[in-house]
Amino acid sequence: MASKQYDVVVIGAGPGGYIAAIRAAQLGFSTACIDEWKNASGGPAPGGTCTNVGCIPSKALLQSSEHYEHAGRHFGEHGIGLDKLSIDVKKMVGRKDTVVKQNNDGILYLFKKNKVAFFHGRGSFVKAASAEQGGGWEIAVAGAADETLVGRQVIVATGSSARALPGAPFDEETILSNDGALRIGAVPGKLGLIGSGVIGLEMGSVWRRLGAEVTILEALPTFLGAADAQVAKEAHKAFTKQGLKIELGVKVGEVSAAKKGRKEGVTVAYTDAKGAAQVLEVDKLIVSIGRVPNTTGLGAQAVGLKLDERGAVVVDAECRTNLPGVWAVGDVVRGPMLAHKAEEEGVAVAERIAGQHPHVDFNTVPWVIYTSPEIAWVGETEQQLQARGAAYKTGTFPFAANGRARALGDTTGLVKFLADAQTDRILGVHIVGPMASELIAEAVVAMEFKASSEDIARICHAHPSLGEATKEAALAVDKRTLNF
Ligand code: FAD
Ligand code: NAI
């Protein structure tokens, strides 16, 4: 079979892969992108975890459930009465599916627009391509039509999948990964989650808002250890007040589905923080204990592509693997498992192939948790600064003192600045509160431009706006807030 030859072949069309393919095509390379994700009718569904079972569908359900919560709990404060509030979960989930499809179609359109050849199927390394083939790597595509491509450069962007608890595989009916968690067709009476990380909090919030009794079991004794401790404490207080039950420091034991004469349901045996044996009985269980890189079936062994003990592709700081002309980006490599990190790496690799010198700084990759209140941060936390013995100043400002937050009726949380004690350079910004996901962008720009807290404090922010809380927190670093 004659092989099709490309300058760049990308395996995986998640945010890392599809963005890398578009950027490579923009730079003038003949580019192919292979992805195996299937929609409900078996057709292509590019966009990866993020588009199909991650960022996009979770935010669609978070938005719907937030509307429901506002209508039920907060409209009254605005003088708006509703006689009868109802919820049609199937319709809500259907809307989410439409949003996903719009994104899948959008990526197929972008491939056409940028002349990226798309192949639907599983891509795997076969062998090094011969000199007559122009060098590079032979990649087999196993799909509706089997093909062989040759890529002079190959970018692996195969992403990650949910990690299961040992002995409790996902059945996606009662023991759910993020996939099943986004397809629940009716509000469960009792919902359990293992892991109070990002997915646990976002998915737990969705189903709590819709009426489920939600319990999250977390192994670590500290809540949201990756976030700044002050922000995590504030968030924990808010979630507990909303009715999310979060048990820290537990040891999860046997997980058994459909036991004790019940047709449905899951029983989780665990030891609580005090060492006492406990049992949690729920209708459905979401397991959100982190993710594993997707490298099975990639043919890594066939060509000697180096993987680490977790199965992640080993790369250097510039996403180069141990094989010449083979790169890897996104969730399948080290670093934060975030869509925007994958995208930045994808762009950077395409530009490196073109001989450019881009740089991705993990310290300015923002984190956002789309709960209510939202949590967002960039840079170092106070505990990280303490651990490295840094001399720093802090400034905080509560949303309770911000006029726009009061008008919105959403005054939970604060903005916190951490700045170098001598130079005033911003080291980290941490937000818990309304629209933290949008507010953090200003802090990312500031850190990219190596701004000081004084720089932000002197910038004119519109009034009334939530952004004024950012300015005030910057002023607070120098103990001169104006409205608190
Ligand atoms: P993926 O998106 O996983 O894409 C990899 C693609 O490669 C998939 O389509 C897969 O089918 C395909 N593939 C794998 N192997 C092969 C093969 N051999 N041949 C062909 N195709 C293959 N991140 C954020 O930044 N913001 C969020 O709000 C957010 N929300 C999330 C919510 C949930 C519930 C989850 C699970 C994740 C969320 N994430 C979020 C994380 C984000 O989804 C990932 O970081 C991101 O998708 C990683 O992109 P990627 O391109 O590396 O991999
Ligand atoms: P996570 O790493 O965020 O959280 C996993 C949690 O599970 C941790 O707190 C961990 O201590 C706990 N845990 C691990 N094993 C356990 C066990 N046996 N018993 C009890 N608790 C246990 O992982 P999560 O939530 O699965 O999400 C995966 C990744 O997806 C995130 O790290 C993030 O990178 C990405 N994501 C990003 C989102 C965003 O940007 N808004 C939203 C959702 C996911």
Give a topology summary.
Elements: E1 4-11, H1 15-26, E2 31-35, H2 48-53, H3 55-74, H4 89-113, E3 116-128, E4 137-143, E5 147-156, E6 160-162, E7 175-176, H5 178-181, E8 190-194, H6 198-209, E9 213-217, H7 229-242, E10 245-247, E11 251-257, E12 266-271, E13 277-282, E14 284-287, E15 291-293, H8 300-303, E16 326-328, H9 339-353, E17 367-369, E18 374-379, H10 382-387, E19 392-398, H11 403-408, E20 414-420, E21 426-433, H12 436-448, H13 453-457, H14 467-477
Parallel strand pairs: 1-2, 1-5, 2-3, 5-16, 7-14, 8-9, 8-14, 9-10
Antiparallel strand pairs: 3-4, 4-5, 6-15, 11-12, 12-13, 17-18, 18-21, 19-20, 20-21
Bound molecules: flavin-adenine dinucleotide (FAD) and 1,4-dihydronicotinamide adenine dinucleotide.
Flavin-adenine dinucleotide binds next to helix 1, strand 2, helix 2, helix 3 and strand 3.
Care to describe what's here?
- By secondary structure, the chain is of the alpha/beta class.
- The chain has three domains: 4-161 and 292-360, 3-Layer(bba) Sandwich (FAD/NAD(P)-binding domain); 175-289, FAD/NAD(P)-binding domain (3-Layer(bba) Sandwich); 364-477, FAD/NAD-linked reductase, C-terminal dimerisation domain (Enolase-like, domain 1), CATH 3.30.390.30.
- It has 14 helices and 21 strands.
- The strands form five sheets. The protein has a five-stranded mixed beta barrel with strand order 1-2-3-4-5. A five-stranded parallel β-sheet has the order 7-14-8-9-10. It has a five-stranded antiparallel β-sheet with strand order 17-18-21-20-19, with helices on both faces.
- Flavin-adenine dinucleotide (FAD) is lined by residues 11-17, 34-37, 48-50, 54-55, 58, 122-124, 157-160, 178, 199, 294, 297-298, 330-332, 337-340, 342.
